[in-house]
Write a structure and sequence with these properties.
With 129 residues, the chain is an alpha+beta fold. It is built from 6 helices and 4 strands; from the N terminus they run E-H-H-E-E-H-H-H-E-H. Strands 2-3-1-4 form a 4-stranded antiparallel β-sheet, with no helix packed on it. The N and C termini lie far apart (48 Å).
C-alpha cells in the first residue's frame, strides 16, 4: 500500500445546519479561528478547507485529504478540537454529537479536472472517410 504522503488527495464535502439566528455569530467566530485549531487541522490532513454558510443556515464544508478516516481520527485525538467542538455545538441544529462527528458527507458527482484529464488520455477513434 502507498504511504499516506503519496496517496492522492481526495475531495470531501459535508453539510450541517447552523441555527439561522446564529449565522452572523457563526461567521464571526470562523473569521478568527484559534491558531492552535488551525495548526491541528493542517497537521491532521485537512487541506484547502473551506466553510460556506448561507443566510438560511445551510452550512457546506469542503476540504481535501489523503485519508478521511485518519484526518477525522487525528482531530478527535486533539484537546483543542474537543474544546472547539464544545464551543460550536450551540450553533448547530439537529445534531446531538459534535459537528465533526455529525456532518453529512455529500458524494462527489462531477470533477471537471478529473474528466478533462481522462478525456485527454483516452484514445479517440479515427474519423471515417
Amino acid at each position: 500500500m502507498a504511504s499516506t504522503a503519496t496517496q492522492p488527495l481526495t475531495p470531501v464535502c459535508f453539510r450541517l445546519r447552523v441555527r439561522p439566528e446564529l449565522v452572523a455569530a457563526y461567521r464571526e467566530r470562523h473569521a478568527a479561528v484559534w491558531p492552535e485549531m488551525l495548526e491541528a487541522l493542517r497537521a491532521t490532513g485537512w487541506l484547502d478547507y473551506r466553510i460556506f454558510v448561507a443566510d438560511d443556515g445551510t452550512c457546506i464544508g469542503t476540504f481535501r485529504t489523503r485519508d478521511l478516516d485518519a484526518s477525522l481520527a487525528g482531530m478527535a485525538a486533539r484537546d483543542v478540537n474537543a474544546r472547539w467542538q464544545a464551543e460550536m455545538q450551540p450553533f448547530f441544529e439537529g445534531i446531538e454529537r459534535p459537528a465533526d462527528e455529525s456532518f453529512e458527507l455529500i458524494p462527489l458527482a462531477f470533477d471537471l479536472d478529473a474528466q478533462l484529464e481522462a478525456s485527454r488520455t483516452v484514445p479517440r477513434p479515427e474519423p471515417r472517410s
